[in-house]
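CHAIN AND CONFORMATION:
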Amino acid sequence: MKFLGKKATAMPLMAIAATLALGAPQAGAQGLFDMLFGGGIRHEPQGEFPPPPPKHRPKAPAAGGGGGVKISSPSYYTYKADKLVRVDFSTLSAAPQAAAPQDAAFVPSATGAAFHDAIASLSDYELYAEPDIAKALIAYYSANPDFIWVTGTSLNNRAQDAVRVLGEAASYGLTPADYTVDVPAATSSSDDATKLRELVRFEMALSARVLRYAHDAQSGRVEPNRMTGYYDFPAKPIDMVGVLKTLAHTQEVRTYLESRHPQNAEYQALRVELEALQASAENEIVVDPKLLLKPGQTSPELPKLLSLISRNLDDEMGGTYGELLSRLATSEVYVPELVPLIKAVQVKEGMKGDGVIGPRTVALLAGTSKADRLLKVQVALEELRWLPSDLGSPRVFINQPAFTASYIDNGQEQLKTRAVVGRVTNQTAFFYDQIKQVDFHPYWGVPQSIIVNEMLPRLRSDPGYLDRAGYEVTDSRGKRIPSSAVNWGAYGANIPYNVRQQPSEANALGELKILFPNKHAIYMHDTPQKSFFKQDMRALSHGCVRLQDPRGMAAAVLGTSVDYIAEKLKHGHSTENVTRTIPVYVAYFTAWPDMSGKVEYFNDVYDRDSRLKQALDATEAVRSPSS
């Protein structure tokens, strides 16, 4: 469970809602720390931590103690794409014709001599590419001095297929202009030397853009870890020279290039959605997505919502509310008579029926704009390229904007449970890992960030608090010492003690946790705060993922029954290893298909889509002047 204390620059409405949901501060031991992490309280805790300042002045930190030091959260960065470099063809041009090819498997074709003659004309050719692609071009053609895309004096079938695939990049949410190649006309020149010059330049340009396409399809257009410390993805290296070798020896160019894309059902469903959106008209009825309307208030947006409700009435709702809608269809005043209708619509859509018309209600009734949905789908396609092509089965998939966690096996969603994820100020990272262990009645090892940022201010004035609240303090050698014996005022960001909470009803992790060890200290766990699962906006934790049905998830990953889990919980603290390979995706998708392929849309709670859009724009800006 990770504390991320640095606020985002702009806090969206959801973050404000999360703050309000936690309530106002309370005094004494029933602060936010007690509410979130226990502290001996056995009821549903309330309030905020840190508590209000005590009536007496706390002890001042010792000199050099760093009283105001905090452990900050990861940050977001202004994305800078790698600059393109001019391909240096001088080494190819300087090679003597009689030189033996470097690749022992290379078999020269009838055009080999023509290729050698043509490369001399590349000396003044300005072709720009990514550094690794530029390097791969020289490496490949040095070892294999022959055309891939040209046969005789014309483009071959490979070239035609490749150009077609590159031209269809938009169907994958890519930008076709990134892969544009000038195709020489069949009758562009009667001069053999000029024709050969055009062909060899086309050869190099197409190889460069094919390599860019292969890279983008497999790994994405941006490097996610350079966007923010919240993203953590292993590199997906691509053998650029190997790609060209494969393409030189196959006639199945389309099949090969398309195979570079993720090969999972979710990617295909998002492509289908993208195609449908590109062909669709804009929303007929557009409602202000930021509308907030309470009973008794007035808004010109209300008749639009009522019209949308009327359009989608089923027989049951129509029988109950049809006459009301007909009579008040043009009302701009949210009169009391309409409140039961709005509540019924909210409940039907799985929301809390509070009768307040806010952004979530508007999104469910009016949907998001076409432009917004297009961006969400394009972002989702890019993000899927950061993940393994085969997502694995079984797997656990956590989608943070949806506030859900699912266990998927054999193409079926065996379990789906509500989840709580990190607040805007304590964001959950985006990464994937492998589930290793289930801990029953776990200890909670308090992260240093929480010790420093949340516990330490209190401990300076009340050093014995941890002793009373059920926490253990140990030194660097693992020796347990009383919290009251530590001079907490002497420390700042570097505290040489470990703190853990003992198993109890008040333990912050509840009755079990599911571990997939990672540098973010994030895992799935139970919680004593069951009321959070009733809320629609559930970005409320310190970063870990709280589950509404932790027993069901534990049973799923262990391949056993809920009854078995219940029995294990009767016997106190224990652990059990997960013996199967089960990847877990702690993911962030604002557009994601359900198991039937229908794409659902979610609010961008952390404002990450716009940051990815900035990174994509930066990448396109670097690529646009390339030839």
